[in-house]
Amino acid sequence: MCAHEPQCPATGSPAAHVVAARPEQGWSLLCDGAIVFDDTGELLPDGRVVEPHRLSVGHLASAA
């Protein structure tokens, strides 16, 4: 799908880059074929779904 040399990284690799973005719709297409959503969820090329992995409120830092 892209011009990586060597070939595109495997699905889920941090080396994948955005080839199309629709911020108004909340998603981006990566060169490895995965779609990532603003809520941190993902749709992988084989149809598997990665649930959003948000931090719980207890893990967020509070401002003083």
Explain briefly what this protein structure is:
This protein is mainly beta. It contains no helices and five strands.
Features:
64 residues; mainly beta; five-stranded antiparallel beta sheet; 0% helix; elongated; DUF5999 family protein; DUF5999
Number of E-state strands: 5
Secondary-structure element order, N to C: EEEEE
Unreliable spans: none
Q: Output mean pLDDT.
A: 80
Q: What's the gyration radius in Å? A: 14 Å
Helix fraction, binned, reads under 10%
Distance between the termini: 46 Å
Structural class: mainly beta
| Main beta sheet strand tally, sense and closure | 5 strands, antiparallel
Assess the beta-strand content as a share of residues. Answer: 25-35%
Write the layout of secondary structure elements.
Blueprint: E1 18-22, E2 27-30, E3 35-37, E4 42-43, E5 49-50
Antiparallel strand pairs: 1-2, 2-3, 3-4, 4-5
Structure description:
It is a single chain. With 64 residues, this protein is an all-beta fold. Helix content is 0%, strand content 25%. It is built from no helices and 5 strands. The protein has strands at 18-22, 27-30, 35-37, 42-43, 49-50. Strands 1-2-3-4-5 form a 5-stranded antiparallel beta sheet, with no helix packed on it. It is elongated. This is DUF5999 family protein. It comes from Streptomyces dubilierae.
